[in-house]
Amino acid sequence: MAAPSGGWWQRRGGFGLYELLQSWWQHRVSFVISLVTTFAALTIYYFTFLGERPTPIFEFLQRLEYNSLDTRVRYRPTSATPADKRIVIVDIDQHSQEVLGKWPFSRTHFAKMLDVLREDGATVVAFDITFDKPDQTVELMRKIWRDLETRKKNGEPIDPKYEAWLKQLVADNNVDAQFAKSIDRFGPVVLGSFFLKKEEVTSIDNAALDEYADLIDWYSIARTAMNPATGKQDFGELVRKYDQEGNLFTATIANIPSLANPDNPEKTSIGFFNISADQDGVLRRTMLVLPFGRSKDINDWQMFGSLEVQAVRLYLGLPTTQLSVNFNQIGVARIDFGDKLRLKPDFTGHMQINYRGPRGSYLYKSIADVVTKNFEPGTFKGKIVLVGASATGIGDQRSTPYGGIDYPGVEVHANVIDNILHQQFLVRGARQVLWDVLTILFLGIPLGILMALVQPRWMWLGAGLLIPLVAVDYGAFLHGWWLNFTVPAMTLVGNVVLVSLYRVVFEEKEKRKVRAEFSNYLSPEVIRRLLVDPRLVDPKKTDITVMFSDIRGFTTISEKLDAQELAVFLNQYLSDMTRIVFKTNGTLDKYIGDAVMAFWGAPFEEPGHATKACNAALDMMKRVRELQKVWKAEGKPSLDIGIGLNTGVASVGRMGSSLRRGYTALGDTVNLSSRLEGLNKDYSTNIIVNETTYQSAKDDGFVFCELDLIRVKGKLQPVTIYQLMGRQVDLAAEGRAEEVRLQVEQFTRARELFRNRKWEAAQRAFQEFLDRWPEDGPSRAYWKRCQDYLFDEPPINWDGVFVMTHK
């Protein structure tokens, strides 16, 4: 059923609420596709990025998201993430091997390095190295000393001078002791350790593993249950989650006791440097704390901090008691550095590394240059110094978002320390998940509603939302947020592609049929509205304004032109008239030879259709006047037209036989309009309208002149007809407004005399009119009637109605 006319929901120039709802309902299947796409995207998002064990296909999507994150990292300007100048790397590089000898170095070099760093004012030194075995450079002297001790026990004579010399020589070359003294002199030193998984310790004796575990037990950090009542269960759940992620270790490799002195853990500490890579082998996150123990009772296990955590603790001057891990039933909740820092990692102590730049973003100094003091004084003053290797063959090279496998592991630790100090890890938490979900919903449901309303050719604009999506994700990344790009982009692309495909294959096929059927007699605007509601073309009774126009003297014109010229002549005329009909949102019913039938007010009901028809009639006459000049210049016969307009109720719709149908209007309103067009011959006028059209359009800026009261053939009820003189604004622009006003007034006075049976006075009045405007057809017709009535006066009961005897 058509919308009621005159409602605010049907204003010209755009969709109203009613049309929107109708259009949406017509394309509801497209919207359902968008809903399914959105639900599927949310499901994939949950199982890929929130679930615990993604399926292989979801792992693939996870890798795509990793790649999108790596792209953001690589294209981020280094100015957005300046490296902290308080962090310096002492590098065991190729140059140091050329100066200090082949690796492993004598620990005298590390002792010397610490002394130099202490003298230059370094605050903390952290070793990305584990000293788990005694130094091997004096192993031969130790072996000789052990042989001497054996011979002495066996009673063999030993030269006391030789024994004293050898003892002093071994003592002088006890580099581990020298290194230990340097560590004690420096103070805040972190020695590196690492943990091993079950499959990595098959060849190591359990006793040795227990000894290693005892050595690091002194360096555990406090663990605090946020809910003491369920603390044991919560810790057990925490351990289970570490195990599920593959980060549960069964053994550790510790530093030798002479270096890692458990008597003073406030100065010398131990931190692990295990880093768990993502599934594609790229380091994007760091593990700050982990549980470890050799006991079968998990509650006997301790929490241990990473190399970076311990380095920051010492840099902040905090005792071990102020470094604590808080956990609840979910897992790790936060890591407290006293009241100076608070970190909130994920439930297994991981945080996303916010890399400060590619390799070389931090200051590197070769260990050889440090030992030889080949650097500018003050280089290390107040700095955190990381000691690690990058030399070929011994370097700890890692794969990072910057690509390749050449990023030194020690610089990864530098990035993590930088992130801790500034609390600028890449954030991936509940807020980011909420944003992801809202983005997926927006790119699913509202976009789905929009795509259900717009034409398929505009759906590429939906795909264009990828640009703001990229911009938003990248902008958030610059501010430390990791927003998911893959699933929202999949939602957007899937939504656009699937809905477009459906509409092109199914809906647009039907629309093309409608366009093909109605484009010949409906304006593009009316077709657009018809596509919103195809039921508008169903037969119905409705109020319309019907137009008939016809060429005057067409038979004479056709005789003067050959068939080809006549076709060109007629095609130009009909094309121009049809364009005017379409321009005013009219409907072309048919061509009847040289005649044009059109109507306004259907298939889309709207107010003001009589006004539109009057405007169309005047525009048609204006175009005919222009064509008359062209044809006269070309030597072609001139033509004139007559137009009849009638407003009333008619049956309008797609009608016809089962073999052929057309969209047309039927009824007395149509018939009367045809008769009105024919009356132009009698009055020598161009546009005649019925009283119903006059009443509908009289207040819309037109000038009408009441023409006659007539009774057409086959009808008993008389009708008042009017001549449409023009638009007030046009007449004013042409300087004819006053003249036309006088014409209407004088014609009305003369016609009033005629209706009062004053034939002689009326004839004189019409003659005066013709004297001034000799081309006026209605006055000439009335002058002739007055002449006839002077000779044969109508009956006394004459009602002023003129009876038409022809159609």
Can you give a write-up of this model?
With 807 residues, the protein is α/β, with parallel strands linked by helices. Strands 18, 19, 20, 21, 22, 23, 24, 25 and 26 form a nine-stranded mixed sheet that branches. Strands 1, 2, 3, 5, 6, 14 and 15 form a seven-stranded mixed sheet that branches. The chain has a four-stranded mixed sheet with strand order 4-10-11-12, with helices on one face. A hairpin with a 3-residue loop joins strand 11 and strand 12. Helix 20 runs antiparallel to helix 21. 38% of the residues are buried.
Task: List the defining traits of the structure above.
disordered N terminus; 47% helix; 7-stranded mixed beta sheet; 18% strand; alpha/beta; 807 residues; 9-stranded mixed beta sheet
Shape descriptor reads rod-shaped
Strand content: 15-25%
The major pleated sheet works out as: 9 strands, mixed
Mean pLDDT: 85
In DSSP terms, counting alpha (H) and pi (I) runs of 4 or more, how many helices? Answer: 27
Head-to-tail CA distance between termini: 36 Å
**Which structural class matches the secondary elements?**
alpha/beta
Radius of gyration: 49 Å
Q: Which residue ranges are poorly predicted, with pLDDT under 50 across at least 5 consecutive positions?
A: 1-15
Q: What's the number of extended β-strand segments?
A: 26
Helix content: 40-55%
